[in-house]
Structure formats: structure tokens, C-alpha cells
Amino acid sequence: MLHYTVKKNKTTRISYRLAAGIIIIVPACEFYAFAMGFGRDKKLLFIMCIFLFLYGIYLMAHTFRKTMYDITYHFEDEALRVEHKRGETTYLYSKIDDVSLITPEDPNLYNIISIKTGSETFVIPFTNKKELCDKIYEFLMSHVAAAKIAEDISE
Q: pTM of the prediction?
């Protein structure tokens, strides 16, 4: 069984939340001014503020997703188990849609494994850990392929 932990920076979450707060407050002030009767002729600005406000809410909601916190991936024989802030989720290898390896020009600097399952995408960065990345990628590919073949045979 292999496992790997991706540490997320707390200051990144705080920065996103601060930016989202500013993006929400500025259009809210414009909404207030519009409601009080100022700038009634600036309807285009009001529409742009609506979109900016909605983007701020989206950005704020994004900071509470489980991928914004530390995640530990356990690559077991029967399934991929993901430990995150809100608990633990298990993904059968047959339910994984795609596994991709992203390698830059100099693969010794960093490597990335992308796992897509249903509506979720997990991006696992490996900085200066090429051997571990290759080992996990080969493990994932063999187990996902075996699960897909077993699923095809059972149908």
C-alpha cells in the first residue's frame, strides 16, 4: 500500500477568502447606492456588479472545498482512499475515469498526477520526487486498467 500527503498552505486559503470578501463588498456598496437612488442611469455598471458579486460568492465557496485543505491519498489494492478535512472518501478503481501524468521539460523538478473520477479531479503534485511519482503512477495505471478489464468482462 502506498500513501502520499499533499500539504496545502493556509495563507492561500486566507488570501482567496480576503480577495473574495473584497470582490463581494465592492458590488454590495454599488447595490446599496443604486437602491438609495444614486446612479440610476448606470445600469451597465449595475449588471457588471451583479456578475462580480456572483464571482465573489463562487470564489468564497471554492475556498471551502476539500481540495483546499491537506489531503492524504492511500493507494490500496482494491480502491483509492482519500483522507480530507471532512472525513474520508473511497473511490473504486473501476470508477476512476482518467489518470494523467504531467511531466515538464525537466522532470526532476516536479511531476503532477491528475485523477478524474466523476465530477471530481484530484491534482497530486510531486516536487523533486520523480521516483515516487512514477511508482504511484504505474501502480494507479495497473490497478485502473485491471479494474476496467474486470468490469468489461463482467458485463
A: 0.71
In whole angstroms, what is the distance from residue 139 CA to residue 2 CA?
9
Residue with cell 458579486: 53
Give strand pairing partners of 3.
Answer: 74
User: What is the spatial distance between Cα 54 and Cα 48, in angstroms, rounded to a whole number?
Assistant: 10
- Give the amino acid at 42: K
The full DSSP string for 65-127 is SGGGS-EEEEE-SSEEEEEETTEEEEEEGGG--EEEEE--SSTTTEEEEEEEETTEEEEEEEE
Distance CA 87, CA 82 (A): 9
Name the DSSP class of 7.
Answer: -
Contact between 110 and 104 under an 8 Å Cβ cutoff? The reply is yes
The pLDDT score that the predictor gives to residue 45 is: 86
| Cβ count within 10 A of residue 59 | 16
Rounded Cα distance, 34 and 40, in Å: 6
Average pLDDT by consecutive 10-residue portion of the chain (155 residues)? Answer: 84 93 93 81 86 95 86 87 87 86 80 86 85 87 84 75
Q: Is 2 helix (H, G, I), strand (E, B) or coil?
A: strand
